[in-house]
Amino acid sequence: MDCKRHTIQQQLIFNALEELNIHATAEQVFDYVVQRYPSISKATVYRNLNHMSEAGDLLKIGSFCGSTHYDHRRDKHQHFICKDCNRIIDVEGDFIHICSEIKDAGKFDINNFEIYFFGQCMDCKSK
Ligand SMILES: [Zn+2]
Ligand SMILES: [Zn+2]
After folding, report:
1. I need a surface site. Which of 52, 73, 76, 118 has the fewest CB within 10 A?
2. Cα(113)–Cα(86) distance, rounded to whole angstroms?
3. Reading across the β-sheet that carries 78-82, which strands appear in turn?
4. Distance between CA 11 and CA 6 in Å, rounded?
5. pLDDT, tens digit, for every residue of 78-110?
6. pTM, 2 dp
7. Closest Cα to residue 10, out of 63, 69, 55?
8. Phi and psi angles of residue 81, each rounded to the nearest 5 degrees, phi first
9. Which ligand approaches the C-alpha of residue 70 most closely?
10. DSSP conformational letter for 103
11. Which DSSP helix (H) or strand (E) runs through 118?
C-alpha cells in the first residue's frame, strides 16, 4: 500500500487487517484499531473500509452470517467458508478454465469472477 496518499487511519486499518489475517469484519477491525488509536470512532473505521475497498486498496468479501468481511490481500485468490466455525480460508488455484468453459458455451464474456467454497474445515472435521 502506498503510504503517501493514505491517511493514518487508513494505514492503521490496513495494518489491522494484515495483522489479524482472518478476513476480519468491520467490527473486528475496529476492536483492533481502537486499542492502538483510542480516539478513532467506529464510523471512521466503517467509512474508511468502504472507501478503501472502492479504491481497490483492500478486498470486500461477501457477507456471511450477516457481516461483511475484508481482506488485505488483493492478488487473485478464492475463499473457503467453514459452515461450522465460519472461518474464511484462502484458496489458491487457477479457476480461469471455468470462465473459458462458460465463455465457450457462448453465453457471456467474462472478465472477472469470485468463487466461494463451502464445507467443513479440517479442524472442525477432526473434532
Ligand atoms: Zn471450521
Ligand atoms: Zn483472502
Report:
1. 118
2. 22
3. 88-91, 78-82, 116-119
4. 7
5. 999 999 998 999 999 888 888 888 888 887 888
6. 0.83
7. 55
8. -120, 120
9. 2
10. H
11. strand 116-119
Q: Which residues surround ligand 1, an ion (CB under 5 A)?
A: 82, 84-85, 121, 124
Indicate whether 2 pLDDT > 70: no
| The three three-digit cell numbers of residue 21, written as one number | 489475517
DSSP secondary structure string for all residues of 19-80? HH-S--BHHHHHHHHHHH-TT--HHHHHHHHHHHHHTTSSEEEEEETTEEEEES--SS-EEE
Q: Taking the CA atoms of 117, 120, 123 and 126 in sequence, report the sign of the dihedral they define.
A: negative
Cα(61) to ligand 2 centroid in Å equals: 8
**Ligand 2 centroid – CA 90 distance (Å):** 5
State the virtual CA torsion across 82, 88, 91, 97 in degrees, nearest 10.
80
Please report which ligand is nearest the Cα atom of 125: 1
> Would you state the pLDDT for residue 10?
95
Ligand 1 center from residue 68 Cα (angstroms): 18
What is the number of the ligand closest to the CA of 81?
1
